[in-house]
Amino acid sequence: MPQGEYLGMTLTVLDLDNENLAYFQHCADHNFHLQQCVDPECDLIRYPPGTACPWCSGREFRWVPVDARGTVHSYGEVHHAIQPAFRERAPYMILLVELDTQSGVPTEHEALRVAGNLVDADGNFAGPDLVKRVGIGSRMRMVFADVAEGLALPHWTLDEKAEQPESPWRYPQEVNGV
Hints:
five-stranded antiparallel sheet
């Protein structure tokens, strides 16, 4: 049962939680893998991990490597952290990133979207300057925060090699300073 400490909080993944345990173990190897349905008529990749395919209800799957790059689909900027460990890091961003893999499948409005904190290239919580540069449309890549042997958390940082929007969309009150 992997257990570790992240920002002073104990994180545990139970051995009985096979899907999440495998997911976080892949993250610990710094390889992003997701479940793919083995039904040849479906063959869709899914997130979050689960016991059955959300599209065809098939229970058989395989873990496949997925390119951990994508575009910010949505975000939340936290100014009042509830968890004590996060208070000194506020404001910080939680991102929902739409992966390039399987975008618009099975319908044009669906995609693989993975949540994570915004961090700098070294994996530290992003400072205010980086937070202000990121918005909807920003191109991101995944980095991993090692928590314990066999346990790491996925986070997002700006993909400096990707073309970035000149002005990613932000809430108007953030742009205008209201």
